[in-house]
Amino acid sequence: MINVAVCGSNGKMGKEVVKMVNESENLNLAAEIDVNNAQYPLIEDAHKNCKIDVLVDFTTPEFVFQHAVCCLNNGIKPVIGTTGLTDSQIEELKTLSIEKNTGCFIAPNFSTGAVLMMEFAKKAAKYFDNAEIIELHHNQKKDAPSGTAIKTAKMMSEEKNSFTKNNCAEKELIVGSRGGNSYSDIHIHSVRMPGYMASQEVLFGSNGQILTIRHDSSNRECYMPGVKLAVEYIATHNEFVWGLENIL
Question: Which residues are catalytic?
């Protein structure tokens, strides 16, 4: 039995994780952690009172890094679904995970469909010299661009140095209208709108053709099989993992 704590348990994703843990035969809900009306307001409080093997974090970008550091320093294996970590913070967590010989799992997206979208985009990147990303989320998402978009761009950038071949010299009449310029000059456009939950399009272009790779999430249940898989994996592995695709 794996003892699981859920940090951000009163949030929309946290509630789904709590439900998933309670319905799983091999997982035990050790603690619910949330600053608002939860069993424990802080990770430290839960750690003093419960045995926690794995902590699932779906909180906010401004707190996720310190949560992960706290876990690793206390022998708790974090599974992080909160996006907003910087490249340097991810490297710090990787270093700490290795130093403490404690597993750490970070995934910008736990949907198997979204992971496949990223893998397909990386494969397509070999054959196209021009690409951009549009990500669309609900208007309560605080970070932009999304972690999924950032990781998609980074994976594509492993295939070539630039995706703006033969683009003309540009002048933005309104700053930001061309989106954020990310890895290998891949422009990322972030949409925040009620009615969306989580969607992403990766657009590839060349003379005479456009390839669009798109994934849509319509509810939060779609992430739970991936979260469960990550919890089960990291519970028995003392390693650093970035991305669900590494264990599929």
Answer: 137, 141
